[in-house]
Amino acid sequence: MKILVVGSGGREDTLCWKLKKEKNQIVCASGNGGTARWGENINIRPTDIEKLSDFVKENGIELTVVGPEAPLVEGIVNRFEEKSFRIFGPSKEAAQLEASKVFAKEFMRKNGIPTAGFEIFNSEEKALKYILNKKFPIVIKADGLCGGKGVSICENLKAAQEAIYSLMTKKIFGRQGERIVIEDCLFGEEVSYLAFVDGEDFLPLVSSQDHKAIFDEDKGPNTGGMGAYSPVSLMTEELSERIKKDILKKTINGLLNLRIRFKGILYLGLMLTEDGPMVLEFNVRFGDPEAQAIIPRLTSNLLELMMEAIDGNLSKVRLEWDKRPVLSVVLASAGYPENPVSGKEIFGLEETECLNDILVFHSGTEKKDGRFWTKGGRVLSVTGYGNDIKEAKTRVYSAIFNVQFEGMQFRNDIGEKEIRRIKDGELSIL
Ligand code: AMP
Ligand code: GLY
Prior knowledge:
By secondary structure, the protein is an alpha+beta fold.
């Protein structure tokens, strides 16, 4: 099948890799230096919906797969469906779950979905008054999309006042911070729980865990994600059943009550608290770098799954997984996440790619004159399989020794907490 993958990150490179392995013809818009390995890159921005639609028509594309949230929020699925083009992803209405934290929180409250207690404000004065009587830490979130930077965990009153001031007076995220959510801080382990959804039925994927902070031991500012692994031993069969019943089912039914049929990947960002799993956020797409840890474990046919989700047939499908854990470490540019430096030559890719049980996915890279160069914050995700998580970790970190570019930074502790947990006697299940 001729497939257009929309996006240009490590997640999209991973989707292209898998779909190519399944013998499809791949075009990626706009792609990166890595996606060109699996097909053709075209120079159309992911949010240029009309140009993408023209391309699909003129080039006989049979399926479009959307990676990032921005085109979904802007209505690429609605537009393509109007034209009867096949597309994998949720509609603009469904994408509200990610695009607006106010929508997501009110939706959860209405549908009895466990999440942190919260209040919504569109007045700075009222927000500042509200925090005077709160226990710290508290969490302050901009309503709209802020590239993962719209959330502040405030340890004291002064930090909370500054966060409110930045969002509502300084407007550092423009209109995205016109409304804010102030919520209670939750404590526990974070897990990413993703599922295929076909409007009514769902199929959960294997569990994974992201590492959001830039430095080891979760220190420093948050990033898009510095590494991930799958599975997470905390995700027992029992916990997964509870998430399906208390969160996934309620979310899909709540959307149906709003006459919204969610089709695509629903991503629950969960905190496993003492009181059970609670939703930190919804995303309406694969995670990045979670996709790099999950998709290499999928032995079922991804294209078929996407088609069954579009056609509302997921109840007929079973997922098959490689039992081996996968771990993926992001190599980032100097200055990431604040001011990443681009344009550095990348060395050692070929030697790394040909190692056993290692995959190298590209994010911010480009190929010029037969050589690879950095282009953006997150550059590569070095990914590996192991018979256990420890072996996967050792394999990936020894593979990273081969790769080099000026200023390259990465975390040394991806999967470390999981290794410690397993040593303490817990078992990986899902
Ligand atoms: P979000 O975009 O809402 O997922 O927030 C980004 C990150 O902030 C999450 O991955 C958590 O690490 C953290 N976070 C968000 N909400 C809370 C909360 N209520 N309690 C503790 N941490 C939170
Ligand atoms: N890894 C977090 C995200 O994709 O939003």
